[in-house]
Amino acid sequence: MTRRQKTDAWELVPSTLQDIEMARKKCRRLVVRRAAMSAGVSALPIPGLDIATDLAFLARAIEDISIEFGLSPDQIARLQPRVKLIAYEMMVGMGGVMIGKVVTREVVAHLLQRGGLKMMTKYAAKIVPIAGQIVSASIGFVTFRAIANQHIEACAAVAAEIMLREAG
Question: What is the pTM of this model?
């Protein structure tokens, strides 16, 4: 299924713990693949390419995770008002999560800046030939995976809360 078809499809928030866990596992596999691709680009000695790649891959991963949990802005807009209210209450309570928000490169850049020391180390390591590129790629992989996995857990928490409130 193409990205466009997936976005246009009527998808619901996972409604059982098993569905939530399946979505979580699927998203974790997606994150590892995208983080590895981003790390591969980071290993190349081309200045600036890794930053652009990190931003693009992470923005797309966060968007795909939200879609998988039925929590993209378009999907939330189509929820029943009661369920939409639950989703918004959870998102407000979680603070700076990206659920239900349009993910832009600027938003992702802000997230990467929050991991500033790691990112600074990543780019400083590029100065050291070969070993520096490996360190840079490794730091990029870990940072990417950490940010995306936090988003997975936030989406899973919102989906679980919606499921619990709907059942009770």
Answer: 0.77
